[in-house]
Write a structure and sequence with these properties.
Elements lengths: L2 E2 L6 E2 L3 H12 L2 H13 L3 H29 L3 H12 L7 H32 L8 H13 L1 H20 L2 H29 L4 H9 L8 H14 L6 H6 L8 H29 L10 H12 L3 H34 L4 H24 L5 E2 L2 E2 H28 L2 H8 L3 H27 L1
Antiparallel strand pairs: 1-2, 3-4
Helix pairs in contact: 1-8, 1-12, 1-14, 2-10, 2-12, 3-9, 3-10, 3-12, 3-16, 3-17, 3-18, 4-5, 5-7, 5-14, 5-15, 5-16, 6-13, 7-14, 7-15, 8-12, 8-14, 9-12, 10-16, 10-18, 12-13, 13-14, 14-15, 16-18
Bound molecules: phenylalanine.
Phenylalanine (PHE) binds next to helix 1, helix 2, helix 10 and helix 14.
Length: 452
């Protein structure tokens, strides 16, 4: 399945689809299906969606290319990739912080990601066992409240999800990832299309949902919305935490990085937009609030599944596939820290995975207890989960992206990147100008606006 790269001893992925699949598997997950609709709902729709698309195009795509190129060039885990480059180029060792921040971000994100993925598994189970049958929309809302207020139920499913992640990760990237995703990702896409059909034909509110997402009310284009859009763009593309660097290190030399980056960004954005177009018409049809927060996807779709013909089957499949999409992202969240542990310590892959996943599981309890109300600690009006989410998506990932862009734009050799990207000189210069100037300026502006 996996071949040897001729220039190094490191294994590379078997064919050109595998990297695309793995990168898309990392990018597509709860960020698209769960987070995008709820954040867009909280920031009032169109204005947020416009800013988000802007961030994807202007910052996301160039950075995706930069991260992948660094990984493929060095064929090392992110931290060691940066270390090797800085020592080869005589640059400051401090750049290693990019790798450390990436590991930290992956660790913290996975801690709450696993809890939400656990919700999805819990929903799959409840739907197929008939727990929702005959419920009206209010009762569906209460059922969500019931799950979230119960620490034991959330811990159970959080544990199930972390154990699955652990087992697949410990088996190794080649064996674990390649096969499953080839079937699951298209299946998820097909199911999203079925749900989109439902929203279009059965809710009677499709145009209202569409307008909510795409008509821009410029008074809602605020600094705060911009930070949220930037954070969401980085989160959904798995950017700014060296995840694609880790994956890029397995990418065959003859794959085109720019083409793959554009495909990943396009697929990922498409999934998010479709999710929004599914959720909002249902939200309006059943009298729910677009700004309901993290429960939005679960409550709205379940309200629809209860009314749909074969809703139990579709609901079950939907939540299982969302869980699987989350799994392929979770695996990529562990990868940077895991790759480093394996390179740097005598631990075997299995032992390293167990230690890492146990620690992540433990931190995840903080999210569980803040959801259930057992942990009442707040800071700036945010609970533990909100703080983690804000700190990772809106600070760690953008700052990570900022550093990667400066590193790739100003420290790395032009010829190295030119070689990795394989672009014509004109297009390459355009990319380089974006990475050197536009991306850092945009990220900085947004972050500074956020502070004031
Ligand atoms: N991109 C994933 C999603 O949208 C989450 C993720 C973030 C995965 C960062 C890896 C790194 O669900």
């Amino acid at each position: 399945m996996s071949g040897q790269n001729p220039t190094t001893s490191k294994k590379t992925w078997a064919n050109r689809w595998t990297f695309l699949l793995a990168a898309a598997g990392s990018a597509i997950g709860l960020g698209n299906i769960w987070k995008f609709p709820y954040i867009a709902g909280q920031y009032g729709g169109g204005a947020f969606v416009m800013l988000y698309l802007l961030c994807i195009a202007v910052m996301g795509v160039p950075l995706l290319m930069a991260e992948t190129a660094i990984g493929r060039h060095t064929r090392l885990s992110p931290l060691n990739a940066i270390r090797k480059l800085t020592s080869d180029l005589g640059a400051s060792k401090l750049w290693g912080i990019i790798g450390w921040m990436g590991m930290l971000a992956g660790f913290l994100i996975l801690s709450f990601y696993s809890v939400i993925a656990g919700w999805s598994l819990s929903y799959a189970w409840d739907i197929v066992t008939g727990a929702f049958s005959g419920m009206n929309t209010d009762q569906v809302g209460d059922a969500f409240g019931g799950l979230v207020s119960s620490a034991p139920r959330q811990i159970f499913w959080h544990t199930v999800f972390m154990v699955i992640t652990l087992v697949i990760t410990a088996r190794g990237i080649h064996k674990g990832l390649e096969k499953g995703l080839q079937v699951m990702m298209p299946a998820l896409f097909a199911l999203l299309l079925i749900m989109l059909g439902y929203s279009m034909l059965e809710t009677g509110q499709f145009m209202r949902g569409f307008d909510f997402m795409f008509s821009v009310n410029f008074s809602k284009v605020t600094g705060e919305a911009f930070v949220a859009a930037l954070g969401q763009a980085f989160f959904t593309l798995s950017l700014g935490m060296c995840c694609l660097m880790a994956y890029g290190s397995y990418m065959p030399a003859n794959n085109s990085i720019p083409r793959t980056a554009i495909n990943v960004a396009a697929l990922d954005t498409l999934m998010a937009i479709i999710s929004g177009l599914i959720v909002f018409p249902i939200v309006f049809a059943y009298g729910l609030e677009p700004s309901a927060g993290p429960g939005l996807l679960f409550v709205s779709l379940t309200a629809a599944f209860v009314h749909m013909p074969m809703g139990e089957l579709f609901g079950f499949l939907f939540f299982v596939l969302v869980g699987i999409a989350a799994l392929s992202s979770a695996i990529s969240l562990v990868e940077p820290a895991l790759a480093w542990l394996i390179e740097r310590t005598p631990l075997s892959r299995t032992v390293a995975t167990v230690i890492l996943c146990a620690a992540i599981w433990f931190v995840g309890l903080g999210t569980v207890f803040s959801m259930s109300g057992d942990l009442t600690f707040t800071l700036f009006g945010k609970n533990f989960f909100d703080l983690l989410d804000y700190f990772t998506s809106n600070i760690l990932l953008p700052v990570g992206g900022l550093l990667v862009s400066i590193f790739a734009g100003w420290i790395m050799k032009r010829s190295t990147l030119m070689h990795e990207l394989g672009l014509s000189v004109g297009v390459f210069n355009l990319w380089r100008a974006m990475i050197r100037v536009i991306v850092p300026l945009c990220v900085l502006t947004v972050l500074i606006t956020a502070l004031f």
